Automatic annotation (TrEMBL):
Signal peptide: none annotated. One of its GO terms (biological process) is sulfur compound metabolic process. SUPFAM superfamilies: E set domains, Oxidoreductase molybdopterin-binding domain. It comes from Spongiivirga citrea. Keywords: Metal-binding, Molybdenum, Oxidoreductase. The keyword Transferase does not apply. Its cofactor is Mo-molybdopterin. The keyword Oxidoreductase applies. Pfam families: Mo-co_dimer, Oxidored_molyb. This is Molybdopterin-dependent oxidoreductase.
Length: 406
């Protein structure tokens, strides 16, 4: 009886949080009743998103930004894309939240409360770029199934948490550990409790990096519910699917983790290039690791009009997975010639870098500004499309904006 009342109070609390105020007579609500305010949800209100964000799917929720919304150096929640594979957990009780570390390669299983994680380990803060592996999918031809992301499934927020490697050292890891997998509280679309919507992970080399965090804060506040409250894994520079939200478990594996969306063709690309539309066998698909070099012009918005004789000041961000971006250029003649942009160093490793340029146009007319980043290994973004792949991942084509000079 006590436990039921407790669960009900926690539910009322989280429903109230979504509605934005207390449900005054909530204790009188019939069990399992969903208040009207939650029955036909307005996603912008519910997730505290800007109304110019674009909803791609509501079951599960998938929402993307537009280039000009990503102009901030550090992405605020209202412009951060949401990518869910299942249903957002509803009755989160932060005080009783635990993280259990287990698997073949732990010396012994150990469970931490959130409070223990926060007090026992040193906290660190980094700006980390998170881009969905499927960002840019909408441009591939033949098309790939899945959310038709354009360019808005990328963010760079400030994340605060403890290092996963510090927590694993405290647990004790065996020498044969090769991979970790995360487990989370979100619910499979079928509502079958024995199915996980997603359970991905990373090899130990990524896990052991100082920037790989178990985070409990985003931009200095509790992580918003849609982004993984109260605890999320953050592994910047890799497909954001590695950064598990709402995590309550980690398996330390003696083999490559084989959880949901780790196997088959999920988050994999052909190990060797293939022709568009070609069938690829599962065993010829390789797991995506570091994301490729990419950039976005975030100001001005495509379609801007400029007075003749005026210079256009553009700005944006560039990132390159595990690598640094070493060169940023723009073209106003469809890629025939390129001029350099001013490019800043990242705030820390795995954070996106800011660029700007001041552009002169020779006469009135229609132009496109194309932006191209090159990583520290000399690899540049493709001007139009990169190699086709069956699931439509890793489209890092140059971003382009239209400009009229009148
Ligand atoms: N538990 C859980 N973690 C998850 C997901 C999910 O569906 N469930 N989606 C992943 C994918 S595919 C991406 S791209 C990022 C998106 O993070 P965001 O919604 O905070 O932007 O979360 C990842 N972590
Ligand atoms: Mo993703």
């Amino acid at each position: 009886m006590k436990r039921r009342k407790f669960v009900k109070n926690a539910m009322l609390g989280s429903m109230g949080a979504i509605i934005g105020t207390e449900i005054v007579f909530g204790s009188s609500m019939p069990d399992g009743y969903k208040p009207l305010a939650l029955q036909d949800p307005d996603p912008f209100k519910m997730f505290d998103k800007d109304r110019d964000m674009v909803v791609l799917n509501d079951k599960p929720w998938n929402i993307e930004a537009q280039a000009h919304l990503l102009d901030d150096k550090i992405t605020p929640n209202k412009y951060m894309f949401i990518r869910n594979n299942g249903l957002i957990p509803e009755d989160i009780d932060e005080k009783n939240w635990t993280l259990t570390i287990e698997g073949e390669s732990v010396k012994q299983k150990k469970t931490f409360t959130l409070a223990e994680l926060k007090s026992k380990f040193t906290q660190h803060t980094y700006q980390l770029t998170l881009e969905c592996g499927g960002n840019g999918r909408s441009e591939f031809d033949p098309p790939a199934k899945g959310n038709q992301w354009t360019i808005g499934a990328v963010s760079c927020a400030t994340w605060t948490g403890v290092r996963l490697r510090d927590v694993l050292a405290d647990v004790g890891i065996k020498d044969d550990a090769v991979y970790i997998g995360y487990h989370a509280a979100d619910v499979h679309l079928s509502r079958n409790p024995s199915k996980e919507p997603i359970s991905r992970g990373a090899p130990m080399a990524k896990v052991m990096q100082e920037e790989t965090l178990l985070a409990f804060k985003m931009n200095g506040k509790d992580i918003p519910l849609a982004h993984g409250y109260p605890l999320r894994l953050v592994a910047g520079g890799w497909p954001a699917s590695v950064s598990g939200k709402w995590i309550n478990g980690i398996s330390v594996r003696n083999k490559v983790h084989d959880g949901a969306k780790m196997t088959g063709t999920a988050y994999r690309v052909p190990c060797n290039p293939v022709a568009p539309g070609e069938k690829v066998k599962d065993e010829d698909m390789c797991i995506i690791e570091s994301m490729p070099v990419k950039s976005l012009i975030t100001y001005p918005k495509s379609g801007a009009v400029l007075k003749e004789g005026k210079k256009l000041n553009i700005r944006g961000h560039a990132w390159a997975g595990e690598l640094e971006v070493s060169k940023m250029e723009y073209s106003i003649d469809f890629g025939s010639t390129w001029k350099s942009c001013t490019l800043n160093k990242p705030a820390n490793r795995l954070a996106w870098q800011h660029f700007s340029a001041s552009i002169a146009f020779p006469k009135k007319g229609y132009y496109e500004v194309w932006a191209r980043a090159t990583d520290e290994q000399g690899i540049a973004q493709p001007m139009l499309l990169p190699g086709w792949n069956p699931k439509g991942y890793l489209n890092n084509a140059c971003h382009r904006i239209a400009i009229k000079v009148s």
